[in-house]
Amino acid sequence: MSSEETVVPNFDELGLPEALVASVKEIGYETPSPIQAASIPVLLQGESLLGQAQTGTGKTASFALPLLARIDVKKNSPQVLVLTPTRELAIQVAEAFQRYARDIKGFHVLPIYGGHSMTLQLKQLKRGPQVIVGTPGRVMDHLRRNSLDTSTMNAVVLDEADEMLKMGFIDDVDWILEQVPQPRQVALFSATMPEEIRKVARRHLDGAQEIRIAAKTSTVDTINQRYWQVSGVHKMDALTRIMETEDFDAAIIFVRTKTATVELAEKLEARGYSASALNGDMNQALRERAVNQLKQRKLDIVIATDVAARGLDVERITHVINYDIPYDTEAYVHRIGRTGRAGRTGEAILFVTPRERGLLRAIERATRQRIERMDLPTREMVAEQRVKQFKTDVIGMTDSVGSDMDFFRNLVKELAEENEMSIEDIAATLAWKAQVKRPLILPPEEKRPPRERRERDGRDRDSRRGERGGDRGERRQRRERPTDVNFVRYRIEAGRNEGLQPGDIVGAIANEAGIESRYIGNIRLYDQFSTVELPEGMPDEVMNHLQKTRVRQVEMNISVDTGPAPTDDRPRRPRGDRPRGGRNDRRGGDRERRNDRPRGERRGGDRDRRNDRPRGEAPQRQKKESSED
């Protein structure tokens, strides 16, 4: 057993293939964490491993990287099975495999979990993914159906085994391990090691090397941590509001990619902030220049990646903003450690999309601190702060005028006498001129006039009548459709031929872009493509991300639809590309998905899996419900 931390300066020394080393460096990992340095060499040699390490210490890379190195991409069959306690973790681990293997051609990973279409999973399993990441219940379902082939598997990973024990899945895990034939490699990771888990280890990890890493991940008490739940499409506008209302001296904003550092810096500069990018593509001289400007108060905001900000220590940094949430908690701790140093106080703000709430909970567990939810500053708060700052600037400028003050006083008097204006009117006019680029009076939110609202309501009623009457080409209008947003029609390169349904589009856009469903307008499905209405002025970073987002295993390749707009509330379509009736209503689509389940598969997913187990094979003890159901 090893309880000492193995120190390895970089990933090059762990024996990983060059493609994987390049991927982790591009992601932002520089030095392997203790659990990574200790586990990767063991798993690379094909040995079994019993690892004890706190959540958020980089365990996913500890097993994903060495197992990826041992995968044969020429074989389209399952070679690695990873069991996780929840669907959220299953998705997270699968995404991590995909990120690490982005330069490995022919690699496929598939997450399988309860609550997701069994029919779709069966189709995806036939394509032969090399890595399966799943929850115990759904994996058992596939094993009983013989849809998951274990004969080609050579490695099994149990991630967060103590959580599976708490949720009542440890007997299921034991049964699943019995279905994977010998010889096989088993890696078990757990934050704690109760006796029940050690029993599983003794049965299935005979002779395994045990590694124990002491938990050190924690955050300092001098940092006030908050998060904002991303909603709508205006993530950049939300950042601007926060920057305007927070009393900050200097700030560092973290994003995931090098490209995002440049794009965000340009947008902040356009809004009047002194901002600069800081990423690994910049040469050392440029990086040092940005840091020195930050120290000398010539720069107030730095937008950085994890790699570029390692070791950055500037006293005046009062705020750290995680514009993109980090994938692991260790990175989060490193990020917010840029403020609150040497006993100083600091503020850490985290942007969290609905899909990323699992990452937020993991951060809270690892840091043993609760992160409080914050409300986005209102328009009134922004305006009030601008007025306050404007007054401060005016008072500060009086000292700059100096000896020229008499000249300008006389100029104002002459202007008042010649035009019969009051001094107050002249001052007000000059104040208006000074604030044009940064208005002190924010324009009111646009509202539809009553007549237009009545016409819209009439169209809603006509749409509902049309659906009841059989015209189902148009999806039902949502009652809460915002009245202050102009919608633009976008085209998605996936349609009925891929089994696409409106709920797939809404889920992909809402989860990947953090857009509330009420900001997603009409959806129309065709055989070869689909259209969706989204708010005008979608940020470039959102569109770039959505272009690569997959629905039904097909990239959306979303773009503005330049085709002719329908004039009769029905979609114009190419000949032979006809939308099929009844499937454009989102709720109707959900009903179809429920009805499409194979006979005998119940809505409860994993909860009902025990009722049809073969006698004597699966555990009979009732399990607690979990978030995977």
Quickly describe the structure.
By secondary structure, the chain is of the alpha/beta class. Helix content is 40%, strand content 14%. It starts with 17 loop residues before the first helix and ends in a 34-residue tail after the last helix.
Protein architecture, described:
The structure is a single chain. With 629 residues, this protein is α/β, with parallel strands linked by helices. It has four domains: 11-212, Rossmann fold (3-Layer(aba) Sandwich); 223-377, P-loop containing nucleotide triphosphate hydrolases (Rossmann fold); 380-434, no CATH class; 450-595, Alpha-Beta Plaits (2-Layer Sandwich), CATH 3.30.70.330. The chain contains 22 helices and 20 strands. Helix 12 links the parallel strand 10 (275-278) and strand 11 (301-304). Helix 3 (59-69) packs across helix 4 (87-100). The longest helix has 23 residues, at 379-401. The radius of gyration is 29 Å and the shape is globular. Its EC number is 3.6.4.13.
Fourth-tier CATH superfamily name of the largest domain: P-loop containing nucleotide triphosphate hydrolases
For the biggest β-sheet, the strand order reads: 3-4-2-5-6-1-7
| Number of distinct beta strands | 20
What is the total domain count?
A: 4
**Gross morphology:** globular
Give the biggest beta sheet.
7 strands, parallel
In terms of DSSP E residues, the strand content is 5-15%
| End-to-end separation | 36 Å
Overall pLDDT confidence? 78
* CATH class group of the largest domain: Alpha Beta
Q: In oligomeric terms, what are we looking at?
A: single chain
Backbone structural class: alpha/beta
Poorly predicted runs: 446-479, 566-629
Radius of gyration: 29 Å
Determine the fraction of residues in helical runs and give it as a percent range: 25-40%
